[in-house]
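Record RNA polymerase subunit sigma-70, 202 aa.
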Amino acid sequence: MLSIPTFPEAECEILQSLAGYSDRELVSLHQEHPEQGKFFTALFCRYGAIVHSVVQHAVESQLQADYLFAIAWRQIFGELRQVKLSADPEATNWQNWLMDITGNTIERIEVPAPAQIRYALNSAPPPLWCYLELALDRVPPLSRLIVVMTQSLKWNEQRISAYLQGEGRSIPAAEIPAYLTEGYQQLEAAVPADIREIYLAK
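=>
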């Protein structure tokens, strides 16, 4: 039997302070304040267990469940900015919308075999993943490329330098670490301050 993960970020003071807000209020605040990540993260903590219990029925392994869970929340995050919730119980409400998006994700996504999955839920909880992706888009192209080649492709400095040279950018391998450090700094700075405090504070 697959297990439902715990969400330690729910104990963060920033999120605890939002406990009294309704789902509708959190959705509205998320839409009105895109520079803040706490409202989406509060919704994630509130409904993470429910979404995970739903996706578990579509897969066979814990790794696949965690991966599909993260993909579902990334889809929720992407569509949440536009959703219009109504006070009318017959109209769109948060929980029904959430389950619809989760169900559509399950139907649409072909989950890889466990051996092909490189995602780890404890390393990149869905809210952090979502905001890191947004932040990565704000990093200058060269720094972003070097960060991605290092983190995703696991390339070393020599290979990155050779690739860039092939693309017409002559950067010695010895200079790649400086570009990488700068890229990491730019990436962290582009992440909302509250998300940094929730997930990245030492």
